[in-house]
Amino acid sequence: MALRAALRSRSGLSGLLSQRSSCSSDIRMCVSPLLVPQERNYSTPPKIRVEFDQSTGVAVMHMQSPPVNSLSLDFLTELCISVEKLEMDKSCRGLIITSAQPKVFSAGLDITEMYGKSPEHCGAFWRSVQEMWLKLYGSNMVTIAAINGSSPAGGCLMAMTCDYRIMADNPRYNIGLNETQLGIVAPFW
Ligand SMILES: CCCCC/C=C\C/C=C\C/C=C/C(=O)SCCNC(=O)CCNC(=O)[C@H](O)C(C)(C)COP(=O)(O)OP(=O)(O)OC[C@H]1O[C@@H](n2cnc3c(N)ncnc32)[C@H](O)[C@@H]1OP(=O)(O)O
Fold first, then answer.
1. In the structure, which protein residues have their CB atom closer than 6 angstroms to any atom of ligand 1?
2. What distance in Å separates the CA atoms of residue 150 and residue 170, rounded to the nearest whole number?
3. How confident is the chain (189 residues) per 10-residue block, as mean pLDDT?
4. Whole-model pTM above 0.95?
5. CATH number of the domain that 84 lies in?
6. ipTM of the shown complex
7. What's the DSSP call for residue 104?
8. Cα separation of 122 and 38, whole Å?
9. In a domain, 187, yes or no
């Protein structure tokens, strides 16, 4: 109850959504093996920014990978590490995921990860996709997607793995699954 009240009263969620629409206890103590070799390259700016409010127990995760928060291997790795860190912090009970990019929540899987890559890279990429939705779907935190822009395909998948979805009311923002239109078939796993 306290968490829900906190979520409701936080300027965070309502602020995030109105801002965008107006412009047009299992603590895992180890990092998963998938994530170990994928440490962030510190020569590039972080793709994920997390603000954790100790007083409410709510973290806001801002996706900030220009131009459209496409889900690349690097992006997904960073996102999974951030979720794991929050998951390990017992005081974090709620997670709001939103976008720092204008008009787009996430464009879905990064198309450039799907051609001209080695089989090893493709394997790592698809594992990271799976890791992302398993982590969010299985999270002990209350998870909310604050969808402040378009969110096709993998962006929709990510939102679907959260407990709640709230989308900015803007007719220009699309959400849904368009894989068939693109001729993409998700591999068996
Ligand atoms: C719970 C159980 C689950 C089990 C598993 C189930 C299913 C399998 C899992 C997932 C399948 C998912 C597949 C995918 O996600 S495939 C990707 C599909 N995505 C799209 O088709 C989105 C395409 N993009 C858009 O529609 C638009 O770009 C936008 C997001 C609406 C934004 O429009 P806007 O006009 O603002 O920008 P631009 O179109 O001009 O784009 C700017 C810039 O970004 C590049 N870009 C866009 N999308 C992607 C992308 N997905 N990957 C890589 N790059 C992308 C675009 O090319 C532009 O680049 P430029 O260099 O030209 O500036």
1. 67-68, 70, 103-104, 107-112, 129, 133, 150, 152-154, 157, 161, 178-179, 182, 184, 186
2. 9
3. 40 43 34 46 88 97 98 98 97 98 97 94 96 97 98 96 98 91 71
4. no
5. 3.90.226.10
6. 0.94
7. B
8. 14
9. no
